[in-house]
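Bug #77: duplicate submission created two jobs. Keeping one. Sequence:
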Amino acid sequence: MKPYSEYLQRINTAIEQANYGQYPDELYAPIRYMMSLGGKRLRPILTLMACDLFGSDSEKAVPAALAVEVFHNFTLVHDDIMDNAPLRRGKETVYKKWNMPVAILAGDLMMIKATDFLCETDTPRLKELITLFNTTAREVCEGQQIDMNFETQNQVKHEEYIHMITLKTAVLLGAALKLGALVAGASDSDAEHIYEFGKNTGIAFQIQDDILDSFGDGSLTGKKVGGDIAANKKTLLLIELLESVHKDDKKVLDELLKMPDSDEKIQGVLALYTKYQIREFAELKKQTYFNLALKNLSKIQAKPESKQVLESMAINLMERLS
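Kept job's structure:
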């Protein structure tokens, strides 16, 4: 396994050298712009790492890794439209820099280009790659719609929330790893184990993100603490509070949720989180899924030192402060 920085450099080079198209420029310039905004590049790096894990040259998986990153950025272009978000990674979002019709069309084309890049992968298992990729793309869209449905649902259950974040966030991490495994010629069982490792890590990762939104350090996260609270977003924390809160506190909570965004609202809900040990509940849930991920990783037939690299990366994700 190579150092993370080496994988990152290879992915960034592939992104810079990729041919997204030229004419009309009004269509392709937004794609080049979006892909140049940077980011952790976690998902394509996982594809390369998985390929190396199973004893193949990760260079073979670069087209599949590029497909994963272009697809991920396609979802962000459309997410920004749905969220009316003006900024992405500190820069104007595509629909703000151009306009909404251009952003929709550019996003659509990014999905097509992602499939084009995937088809450039030199592997006898290309049909499996395409099937996995298309299934994952469908699931991500389903997760996004379910998340939007939650906005108007009075009640959301724990299992419904976990199902939503599995589709919206976690399956893409699992698929990124499985694509690399398939390119490397891994067995079906190993490919499935590494998929489950990625999926369960992704669930834990999203729960950690929910925790950081309410309890993180704003100077490190770059976000206002309590953003989810201000928006009445049905995170695992709020769902648990709604199920746990006693009668008198339920009245207080209902009044807080009716309030517009304010420090009073955020501090009021945080006080209830503390009273009902909501953070401790969420931390326990996060650890449960992370333990499942490590169990999946332990079942993979690969060099222990190579698996240790993936485990260390997952641990770093869970311990992140931003």
